[in-house]
Amino acid sequence: MPLEALIAEDEELLRQSLVDQLRRLWPELKLVAECEDGASALEQLAEKQPDIAFLDIRMPGITGIEVARALSELSPRTQVVFVTAYDQYAIDAFEQGAMDYLLKPVSDERLLATRERLLARLPSTRHDDAVLERLLQRLGPGQNGDRPPLAWITASNGRETQLIMLEDVVYFRADNKYTTVITAAGESLLRTPLRELLEVLDPQHFRQIHRSTIVNMKSVAAVSRDDTGRGVLRLRQRPETLVVSQPFMSLFRGM
Predict the structure, then answer these.
(1) 84 beta partners
(2) Do 174 and 212 reside in the same domain of the chain?
(3) Would you call 223 exposed, middle or buried from its count of C-beta atoms within 10 A (0-12, 13-18, 19+)?
(4) Exposed site from 5, 77, 127, 132, fewest CB < 10 Å?
(5) Adjacent-strand bridge partners of 235
(6) What pTM value is reported for the model?
(7) What's the pLDDT band for 226 if we cut at 50, 70, 90?
(8) Is 230 helix (H, G, I), strand (E, B) or coil?
(9) Which domain, by its residues, includes 38?
(10) Using N-to-C axis directions, what is the helix angle for 108-121 and 12-25, rounded to 10°?
């Protein structure tokens, strides 16, 4: 039975380049999913349970490291290969943690070496969470880039354009090509897709809990599971509850 792999890379050209390289250098490997962000990677990992996951570190919203941390619940047997454009300091962190990584742009030689290491290790259990935690600490808070997070947005409410501070947002909900902004006072329309919003929100405070929902964690009063095991968030300033997709519940471990 051929090995199966998932690729998560938010830049389409880089994603396709890695797909082409794998098909050329590892033709017996079956690519079961090509994901453009961490959210779709979580969902596909839970569904496909692949042997290998090639994860870009810098993805909007849910990063590659966060996806890897969720694997102990979603797909415990999946081996991780991080794909990174980091400098030498970060590369040292990967090597000290004995983690597999590919440096962008990915060379044929490096990919072949990674293939041999994976074949030698499979089918063994993946790296444990302690290794990933140490790696995350070494990489530090700059893993999502140096651009400061967004502080405020402008959104439409009828004919009026409102300035909304991010600290007042309870959650964002995808609305076709736009995004609905929900505050304690009501709803407004933001002409920015949810995926683009993920790139500028502070990941320390805003978390994606569903393909169509990002929540301000300061507005969360409690996290629980209903009778079906589905994750539910109770909010401080709104009467409704928010559903957490099953793959995203792993991101709430320890809360």
Answers:
(1) 103
(2) yes
(3) middle
(4) 77
(5) 220
(6) 0.77
(7) confident
(8) coil
(9) 4-142
(10) 60
